[in-house]
Design brief:
The chain contains eight helices and eleven strands. The protein is of the alpha+beta class. The strands form three sheets. Strands 1-8-3-6 form a four-stranded antiparallel beta sheet.
Length: 222
């Protein structure tokens, strides 16, 4: 995949505030990379040399290892990693494709030039950064809750609203990955899923979920 920044159909948040000459600089210092499902995009602990923007597809942001967990899922046109999203210029989590994806890599030095010279790009960047932080903090706060029912409800509402934008969706990842995201045991998952179905709040078959009353589910989280 190779797209000229001037004609790119995806008007990313960074490009919106750039001058024509800055777009030329961006065009000379970016690259589009395609990944297949299950391919790693970057790993925790490695240096950050590029701002990475997910253009198409879906990915999981996760901590690898025996006790690893999935922090969140992301879909197209989201910033995956870049300045300020790191500590000591090191990735704090890994990103892996769950569908075929396209990612735009922008040289970190080029991004820093924009942040130093273009005040609007600073506002746009930190606005996007704050949204990412708020989403991640909300997820971590609820996942810290020890109530497995609430954790499962939150996860289903999150997937419905943030990833699939529908109350009728089919997940594109494994049950094991779902449990890593929800943060509960398989035993608790089966128990709470059965309760939600019996209460007529959701329908479920294989990887497909239908949220019958999302407003009621969201009220249960308050």
């Amino acid at each position: 995949m190779d797209i000229d920044c001037h004609s790119c159909p995806i008007n990313c948040f960074l490009k919106k505030s750039l001058t024509p000459s800055e777009v030329n600089l961006l065009n000379d210092n970016h690259a589009f990379v395609s990944y297949k499902a299950k391919e790693n995009i970057f790993r925790k602990g490695l240096p950050v040399n590029y701002l990475k923007i997910l253009l198409t597809g879906k990915v999981k942001l996760h901590i690898e290892g025996k006790n690893g967990n999935i922090l969140k899922f992301e879909k197209g046109q989201k910033m995956l990693s870049g300045p300020v999203l790191t500590l000591d210029n090191i990735h704090q989590y890994s990103a892996t494709a769950i569908t075929n994806v396209d990612v735009c890599f922008i040289n970190i030095d080029t991004v820093n030039i924009f942040l130093q010279q273009n005040h609007q790009s600073v506002l746009d960047y930190f606005s996007k950064f704050s949204v990412i932080c708020n989403e991640l903090q909300s997820t971590l706060n609820l996942m810290a809750n020890q109530n497995p029912k609430l954790k499962l409800i939150y996860s289903l509402v999150y997937l419905s609203e943030q990833i699939y934008e529908s109350t009728n969706f089919e997940i594109e990842f494994s049950k094991k990955e779902l449990l890593e995201f929800v943060g509960i045991s398989n035993e608790n998952y089966k128990k709470e899923l059965k309760w939600l179905i019996k209460s007529d709040l959701i329908q479920h078959h294989n990887k497909k979920f239908i949220l019958n009353d999302i407003l009621k589910l969201k009220k249960m989280l308050v």
